[in-house]
Design goal:
The protein has helices spanning 10-15, 18-37, 44-60, 71-89, 96-102, 112-121, 125-136, 141-148, 152-174. By secondary structure, the protein is mainly α. The longest helix is centred in the C-terminal third of the chain and has 23 residues, at 152-174. The chain is elongated. Residues 92-106 have low confidence and may be disordered.
């Protein structure tokens, strides 16, 4: 049986009312778990750790929820942020010696890789996530779609748009 979602009293929510948050955790957690499973390394323990992080961030950022949208939508945004952070943590980091061996400093002494990461950070969230998963982590289109909860065509379109923006960014910096 699906538990109905509670109405949220913004004053109680913003003040961090313990009883309200307990009710919200009980009501919303079952609905958040499927979204977090996409980002989990594998076990239920990992998913529950992610869920705990979502609720911790929701509590810490509770004053940022203004009540104009749905609480569930706001929580899904937090899920996505927590999930992508978990995915990035599991991405192997290239040692700086290897990076400097394959990249050359630009006129200002910065590595091209640094410029690339900065340009990727400027992309819209969906495009940034697709580039990180498809290009940096070398995941398949299907795996990327599963993690982001979208269709493979959406991943392809976002990657195409992101690559176009990145090319424009680097053309502008060269000229």
């Amino acid at each position: 049986m699906i538990t109905p979602l509670p109405n949220v009293d913004l004053d109680r929510f913003h003040s961090g009312d313990e009883r309200l948050f307990t009710e919200l955790v009980r009501s919303y957690s079952p609905r958040l778990l499927p979204h977090l499973r996409r980002y989990s390394a594998s076990s239920d323990t990992d998913v529950n750790d992610l869920l705990q992080e979502v609720w911790l961030r929701a509590f810490q950022k509770r004053r940022g929820f203004d009540g104009r949208g749905s609480l569930f939508g706001w929580l899904l945004t937090i899920c996505r942020t927590v999930g992508m952070s978990a995915v990035r943590k599991h991405t192997p980091v290239t040692p700086i010696a290897e990076v400097s061996a394959v990249t050359t400093p630009d006129a200002h002494g910065n590595l091209e890789r640094t410029r690339l990461h900065a340009a990727v950070d400027e992309l819209p969230a969906r495009q940034r996530d697709v580039v990180i998963l498809r290009v940096i982590e070398d995941r398949s289109t299907a795996d990327t779609a599963r993690i982001l909860g979208c269709a493979e065509g959406t991943v392809k379109a976002a990657l195409h748009a992101a690559m176009h923006k990145l090319k424009q960014t680097f053309r502008e910096k060269v000229q």
